[in-house]
Amino acid sequence: MKEKILEKAKNDLPLYFGDFKEFWDESINNIGDDDLYEAYRATLVFKNWKYNFHSIEFKTYDQILDEIYEDINSSFFLAIQGLYRSAHMHMRSSIELSLQLVYFIHHPIEFEKWKNGDFVIKHSDLCQYMVDHPVFETDIQPLITNITKNWKHFSKHIHGESPIFFQSEKNARKTNSFTEKDFGIWKSNFFRNIYQINKLLCLFFKKEINRFPENPRNLVLALLKEEDLGLIFYE
């Protein structure tokens, strides 16, 4: 039995690779340059937040930033392969880690416990902490509400709350080819998620932003709309 399964595996794996390569090429050919530019730039946001942190000798949370980058990067590349359910799962993780990052900055004891797997905090408690935090000089309740909406939506993909969240129900899976609808749904969620957690960090580090190096600072700020830039520089 083992030998037969191994033989089939060795025959099938190259076929899987071929399918992924074919879908990848089709995605690249169908994704416009503007979407490709925006999506790839979004994957660089948290890498540049790490550069910004290092510029102010803030290196304690590199592991979290590295993993947020992995989540965002994985979501992008999984989407190119048509694996949209998994791509949404990574986006939920990026929210959880971003909120925990802000929380741990002023909770070093809990951070050390968390690193050892001895500390867990609920999403609702993290959100309330953000809303109550005095460092935010503007009302961030609407932002936190929107982040939570994203978190709940992405959670539906993890828990399979309906067949509409199944990978097997995606048009891309049924046809084994790129579909603008599936990609468009992921793209909208992806950009909204990046925007909101990037905005949260910009507001939290409002007083430090002008100390960041020009290039990584400008990359994270370039995502913000004019009214949100105003919250950082003009209040």
Question: How many distinct domains?
Answer: 1
Number of helices: 12
Q: Structural class, from secondary structure content?
A: mainly alpha
Overall 3D shape: globular
Strand content: under 5%
Strand count, sense and barrel status of the largest sheet are: none
For the CA atoms, what is the radius of gyration? 20 Å
The helix content is: over 70%
Distance between the termini: 70 Å
Report the count of strand segments.
0
Q: Mean pLDDT, nearest integer?
A: 92
What series of H and E elements makes up the topology?
HHHHHHHHHHHH
Low-confidence stretches: none
What does this structure look like?
This protein has 235 residues and is an all-alpha fold. The protein has one domain (31-233). It is built from twelve helices and no strands. Helix 5 (84-105) packs across helix 7 (123-132) and helix 5 packs parallel to helix 10 (180-204). The longest helix has 29 residues, at 2-30. The N and C termini lie far apart (70 Å). The mean pLDDT is 92.
Topology:
Blueprint lengths: L1 H29 L2 H11 L1 H11 L6 H19 L3 H22 L2 H8 L7 H10 L8 H19 L11 H5 L4 H25 L9 H8 L4 H8 L2
Helix pairs in contact: 2-4, 2-10, 3-4, 3-11, 4-5, 4-10, 5-7, 5-8, 5-10, 7-8, 8-10
Give a quick set of tags describing it.
12 helices; 0% strand; mainly alpha; 235 residues
How would you summarize this macromolecular structure in one to three sentences?
With 235 residues, this protein is mostly helical. The chain contains 12 helices and no strands.
